[in-house]
Amino acid sequence: MGKTSVTSALLDWYDVHAREMPWRVMPADKRAGVRPDPYAVWLSEVMLQQTTVAAVRDYHRKFTGIWPTVADLAAAEDADVMAAWAGLGYYARARNLLKCARAVVADHGGAFPQTYEGLIALPGIGPYTAAAIASIAFDVPATVLDGNVERVMARLYDEHTPLPAAKPVLMSYAEQHTSHSRPGDYAQAVMDLGATICTPKSPACGICPVRPNCDAQTAGTQLELPRKTPKKPKPTRYGTAYIARRADGAWLLETRPDKGLLGGMLGWPTTDWSDTPDPAPPMDATWDTLNEPARHTFTHFHLILSVQTAKVPQNTAPNRGAFIPEADFTPSALPTVMQKAYNLAAATLRQV
DNA sequence: GATGCGTGGAG
DNA sequence: TCTCCAAGCAT
Fold this sequence. Notes:
By secondary structure, this protein is of the alpha+beta class.
């Protein structure tokens, strides 16, 4: 079936309906010769991995404010970057962000590679992100295949093979539409369409610029597509967080190991979050258990986190973590589950 | 190919 | 309240 008009229809639609984003150069400005900042594009694409535009905006603004160039970011302290990323989730992205920035400075003279192959070799840059940066920042005709494009292609071609098995065929469809005249605008256009028109639950087919090309719209199957293999139910795990405050107001915190859940992030000492009984607290103290646990859902399990608090003497020696002075402690530097525990304990521990 | 890895918003 | 899910990557 010929769908040669899809590309031009999407570009025409994008010229009128492109959404404003801090890292995006709008089509009219691109025509006037304005080029995207590859650093800003890379930062946005990493932040947007499995994350909504609404959630990314403020973080992107914060990062470019503190670290205006990739060289600035490469020179940053690890702890400062992790603290700035706190709350955005998927913290391996922040660790790889730093690795990538340092590789760009050390191995590429501070300039991002301009090819798909050069980009995908960098930490935290996979097939999607390499194609996105190559097309958006450098107008290389690379094909982006993210969740939006998968949905758009599955519907355009009424493809019923479930994901992720359908990825190769959806990629072949996407490649057929990739623009060679305006690669960056096209990549953003097809993703904008998926985000605003061809949405998962209530697609606005009535105003869709490629409705005449859409096999699912013809068949009436758009709400069933794309099909996905069913997910496993999430188990519930239990644990305990220990929030201790010293006589001078300092808080007992520890940096978590780089690997695993919340890797590299600052947090309260906790038990592990399995089914095993609680090991010993991080030090001898009189621990009080709060009435309400912190509840939090991660990607693959629910957590019910009991919170224990203690006020401890100045000479207390912890066997885990370190006391952070009150003046240096900012709850916003903690991942969300740790902020929840803090909020529950704050009233109890406000007075030293 | 399957699994681990956050979070907040929408329905 | 609960499920789904959003511009994925590393292993």
